[in-house]
Predict the structure.
Amino acid sequence: MRILIIGGGGFVGRKLASRLAERGTLRGTDITHLALADIAAPSAIDAAFAVTAHTLDIADRGAVDAMISEDWDVIYHLAAVVSAEAEADFVAGMRTNFFGTFNLLEACRDRVETPVIVYASSVASYSTDVPQPIRDWTATTPQTSYGTQKAIGELLLNDYSRRGFIDGRGVRLPTVVVRPGKPNAAASSFFSSIIREPLQGDPAMCPVSTDQEVWLASPRVTVENLVKVAEIDGAALGGIRNFSLPGMTITVAAMLAALEKVAGENVLGLVDHERDPTIEKIVQGWSSRLETDVADTLGLDRDEDFERIIRDFMATDMEPADP
Ligand SMILES: NC(=O)c1ccc[n+]([C@@H]2O[C@H](COP(=O)([O-])OP(=O)(O)OC[C@H]3O[C@@H](n4cnc5c(N)ncnc54)[C@H](O)[C@@H]3O)[C@@H](O)[C@H]2O)c1
């Protein structure tokens, strides 16, 4: 089993790589090679099988062709210019999110083998402009360039699968919280910052009303589901290869209440509140209430308890406070 993770140096990519290293198998077969590709070569991980790191710009068709000229059984496409950055820089978003996805699909079309492709789409493919809750068959009506680029990728993945060029499955990730490390350029980044920073002794800014809801999932459950999604029988999905991953709906107020319960009221003093209309507009356009019939039928996992998500972060990813 040879696996390629494009975007393998990112948050989800690194977590997924570690989980695959722990498991040692995918789709019932021993993993023999895991390749991590990203715009800057990702750092290596320990595994009982070969792990290689590659510099790859997915927007460079020649480079993608060269990478795909090797045989990959499963390709995870996690590379993206994320939401706020794609909104601020339209060309950068189109380049990676649209042309990059197209490059990958085209490179796979030229292959005799039919790789399984797991594509990370987003809840940003949907909007609040249609009746809620969102179902798997609700029309995608994105209200950001990032969401539009993700939705285009979903359509292409579907058609390339229908044509038999790939065996694709596109999953709309909820906002993944708590993200370790530093804030990123996603409009959703603060959902992690307001938990992570106070726990690590640093200040955080909440740019939205505490009534704001979010559809979120933990890194642990997201990665587990990405593994399961690679293992399902693609043909069983029929003609609709894209669906939403399970998440939980929670308000910022409930997230902060859980933080207080886990870490004490003092940490809440590190969270300041100042509304940012740009972030607020993007986040308000994302649906926070989804029904996940397809994922539920497939037996995918779901977070139920935000306090557990905080405790998991403290146990696995929390960095010591600066001296
Ligand atoms: N984390 C979330 O909350 C969330 C929610 C919904 C969807 N997603 C999607 O899941 C995927 C993984 O998310 P993440 O949180 O790990 O994001 P991330 O930003 O941490 O990782 C994405 C990676 O893609 C790489 N990349 C960007 N442009 C590239 C290019 N031209 N060529 C090659 N690599 C490039 C980046 O360097 C980065 O390492 C993304 O596609 C994202 O859109 C994430």
